[in-house]
Amino acid sequence: MSVRLDGDIIRLEGRCHVEDAEPLLVLLQAQPGRVVDCAGAETLHTAVIQVLIALGCPISGETSDGFVRRWVAPALTKEPARP
Amino acid sequence: MDHLADQFLAEGRELVQQAADDLAALADRPDSPDLIDGVFRAVHTLKGSTGLFDLGPFGEMLHVAEDLLGALRKQALAAHPDIIEALVLCIDQSGRWLDAFEAKGALPPDAREVGARLRNDLRRWLGDPGVTEALPTESSDRSWLGPFLDAQATLPEGDLVAIRYVPRADCFFSGDDPIAMLKAVPGLCALAIGARQPWAPADAFDPYQCNLVFDALTSAPRAEAQAALRLVADQVQIVEVARGPADVGTVREGIARSLRIDAGQIDALGTIADEIVVANNVLAHLAAQARRGVPGEALAQGILASHLDLDRLVGRLHRAVMRVRLMPLAALFRRFPRLMREIGARLGKDVALTIEGETIEVDKSLVDGLFEPLLHLLRNAADHGIEPAAARRGAGKPARGTIRLGAQRIADQVVIEIADDGKGIDPAGIRRTAAARGLMPEAALADLGDADVLDLIFTPGFSTAETITDVSGRGVGMDAVRTAVLRLGGRIVLSSTVGAGTNVRLSLPVSVVLSNVIVVSCAGEIWGVPMDMVVETVRIPADRVMAVRNSRAFVLRDVVVPVFELSALLGLASGEAPADLRLLVVQRADGLVAVAVDEFTDRLNLLLRPMSGLLAGMPGIAGTAVLGDGRVLMILDLAELIG
Predict the structure, then answer these.
(1) Is the pTM above the cut of 0.90?
(2) Does A49 touch chain B (CB under 8 A)?
């Protein structure tokens, strides 16, 4: 499973394919504002990234996909720094 | 043809093939979603890449085919045999257009009409004309460019190319991953991601509709950006930003040879390379032991084991590299079914082509070099072999003729066979024609056995067809076929039984490596010299050669180069001394050497065969090669010849 709910955090892990977009969306719709942790994600399909952009959910952790980290991450919403 | 076009053709043919295969299977299993998916993907990808070139009718036809396949996929429509037939016609036409594009760089003049007809045939099934959306045309709207460039804090020096990529809304369904596509763009220096439409609220958001717009900047040349995005060319705008030197067109440097390689094979090569590194470390360890003075016996054991290891790895590496050059015969064979349908239709004959052994892998040069000869043989079989239906029925055969194109691997040879169940070749008829054409004296002809008589078909200028049709050649064919096969290092044998059919067998080496050879003449004979031995060829006035003791030499750019006569080296009579000398300058371990010849006649790519048997030890001869006209060329090893 590439999309996993861990407490309040949605974790993306391994290779996230096109079919992971829907479960991710469902988790975000169920409780808006959930943080998505990309630290374990090796690759992210465009459909998954589109969900992250469209819903503007806060992101924590950096994916190991260098291209996404360099070029796509700036378009995503950073998790606000915790006090 | 540039690199992009080559790639388009190679991929296009694969996609056409995949679509054709899936459609053929679909005819038996019309409800298989996997097969419909397969055709859809192939058509979708092919359509995307047609956008790279000026192939309007091609793209438009595929667009409608894609819509129709989309309807099949959504099960809005059942895969009726007539629909499959319409799609087969469309895929066949794609194959023809790829051929035309390869030959002429453009679609044939009737493409617009043909395309419109096929489009209408396809559209009929869609019923509702509203289903077809307008074909996206190359947008000239550049309004996005200014704001995008302004948003970049810094821009790198030099020429830049801006890309706007608007993936189709349904692109995820076609298996596209737009960001993965962009990863392939070299030299990326900026990427902005936007939305085509305002985002829907979270609860109404459809994750499978792509609403993204990508604007990118790259320092790579336009052609490279185009190549990376070729599969989605219809969704991409590419604009050169900075003013560079005028585009002077593409200058081809030599002929680029490309090979499409399965990624698994590269991985396998990588694994071997890793193991060689490990084996090398073992050797380093042994070398250190030797330095420390470890006793010879123990050391020898280690070296022996290490050698065995390396030997095994080098062997594996060699095999793996040879494998890379191999490709399945399918790439060749699969071009024929459509062509045979066309040939059959033109001749008014019902001909079935069966294909066997297409999974056999052979060297790429065979796949490239056998298309024309095989097409010629198949055409001959349909035209001259298979009888008209009425005659076949009269002879008690099924009305439909069968031509079998088969391949099998025998040791390191591949045997390709073309067999028809037609009327066969009558040796008496060949004897008559050969006599009429004066190919041989009648007495000699009478002495020839029937098998040898059949061989006369390969004689230049021989044609047995009483009428020349537009399908078969004009008597220039079979000798050209034989020459092509000889060039690839193969043999061709024809056998035939009157009334039962004709069988042509080609035996070819699975692996072929061609060498570039310069052909020279000397004392009235021709010889070949491998180009990689020759540093340069020079032509100088005879008086620039001076006598140095009892030999001769000339000065080439301040270096004294000894001159030898090829005729003397070969022990041939030398003619009169010419006013100009033609010299082959050859690199030897001890420096440059020049060899005088009478004439440079040609440069050819030939298959070199090493000398075998009694001749194997002959000094100065590297091997032989067969020339286009069937003559055998001796290939010289000049360095060895000079001794």
Answers:
(1) no
(2) yes
